[in-house]
């Protein structure tokens, strides 16, 4: 994907909580179809970076341009409407609804019909609902949940719930998806499946920003990795250069015993 214009350019991103600077002048960019890993020891500022990018937290300083346009500081629903979707560290489905219904709700941000048009049952609104249904089915197939399509979400295993979260995020037609530790709690075979899905997402031209502690999962998947420590970027490079970068190895010493060590 080299040579392509950045989709998102982040400059000087800073988030302070009182006296603590959780994210400190972070610069990075991500291109369409790129898988960018975001790693660092516990408390390094990874989730805070996601919270600021997605508009959940207000940044203290900095800039975030999407297609060259400044969008830092927009409220979360407007950030999502620009195509920046996040998944959470914990699954949060709508209980009492089926897998398919959950994915259809994820598509709501792209729906043009007003409630009034839907209530009137106009042909346009019906056609739109058909399109959403077809799109939901396609995404359910893509993440491998076809057999669970009509199941109530509380009957899903934890790993299936993670796949549902992914389909829901895709239903919003994102240009970039932020994953916060998606492999946590998954079995090895579920991890393999998720890795294939994330690659497939990137192949659709969607950018993926991926926080992950499990280096065996992340390093083969990422095109590029940035490393945070105490809120600052200490390295930015390919998985191979990151693995042996002395500053990165230092940051991880005393934590997990080094990059790539078993968690
Ligand atoms: N809402 C908050 N209020 C105050 N401090 C916070 C808040 N959220 C995060 N922090 C602090 O900001 C720092 C960065 O936290 P963050 O959750 O971003 O780290 P992380 O890199 O995601 O860590 P982990 O790997 O443990 O998930 C930590 O010192 C944390 O205690
Ligand atoms: Mg975190």
Structural notes for this entry:
With 263 residues, the chain is of the alpha/beta class. It has two domains: 1-83 and 174-263, Rossmann fold (3-Layer(aba) Sandwich); 98-171, no CATH class. It has ten helices and ten strands. A six-stranded mixed β-sheet has the order 6-7-8-3-9-10, sandwiched between helices. A four-stranded antiparallel β-sheet has the order 2-1-4-5, covered by helices on one side. Helix 3 (99-106) packs parallel to helix 6 (158-171). The chain is globular. The site of magnesium ion has 2 residues, from helix 1.
Ligand types: adenosine-5'-triphosphate, magnesium ion
Summarize model confidence as the mean pLDDT. Answer: 89
Report the sheet with the most strands, covering strand number, pairing sense and barrel closure: 6 strands, mixed
Q: Percent of residues in helical segments?
A: 25-40%
Order of helices and strands: EEEHEEHEHHHHEHEHEEHH
Q: CATH superfamily of the largest domain, called what?
A: P-loop containing nucleotide triphosphate hydrolases
Counted up, domains total 2
| Major sheet strand order | 6-7-8-3-9-10
CATH topology of the largest domain: Rossmann fold
Structural class: alpha/beta
Task: Report the principal-axis shape.
Answer: globular
CATH class of the largest domain: Alpha Beta
Number of strand elements = 10
Our count of helices gives: 10
From the N-terminal CA to the C-terminal CA, the straight-line distance is: 31 Å
């Amino acid at each position: 994907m080299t040579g392509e214009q950045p989709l998102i350019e982040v400059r000087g991103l800073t988030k302070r909580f009182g006296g603590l600077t959780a994210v400190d002048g972070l610069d990075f960019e991500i291109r369409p179809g790129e898988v960018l890993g975001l790693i660092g020891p516990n408390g390094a500022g990874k989730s805070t970076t996601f919270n600021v990018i997605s508009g959940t937290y207000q940044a203290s300083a900095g800039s975030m341009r999407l297609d060259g346009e400044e969008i830092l500081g927009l409220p979360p629903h407007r950030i999502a409407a620009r195509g920046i979707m996040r998944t959470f560290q914990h699954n949060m489905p709508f209980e009492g609804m089926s897998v398919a219904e959950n994915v259809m709700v994820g598509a709501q941000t792209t729906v043009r019909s007003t409630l009034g048009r839907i209530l009137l049952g106009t042909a346009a609104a019906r056609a739109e609902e058909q399109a959403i249904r077809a799109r939901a089915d396609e995404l359910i197939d893509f993440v491998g949940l076809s057999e669970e399509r009509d199941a109530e979400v509380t009957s899903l295993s934890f790993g299936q719930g993670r796949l549902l979260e992914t389909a829901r995020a895709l239903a919003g037609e994102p240009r970039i998806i932020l994953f916060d530790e998606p492999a946590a709690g998954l079995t090895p075979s579920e991890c393999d499946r998720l890795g294939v899905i994330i690659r497939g997402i990137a192949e659709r031209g969607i950018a993926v920003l991926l926080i992950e502690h499990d280096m065996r999962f992340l390093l083969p998947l990422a095109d590029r990795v940035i490393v945070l420590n105490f809120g600052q970027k200490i390295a930015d490079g390919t998985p191979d250069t990151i693995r042996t970068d002395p500053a990165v190895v230092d940051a991880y010493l005393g934590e997990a015993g080094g990059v790539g060590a078993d968690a």
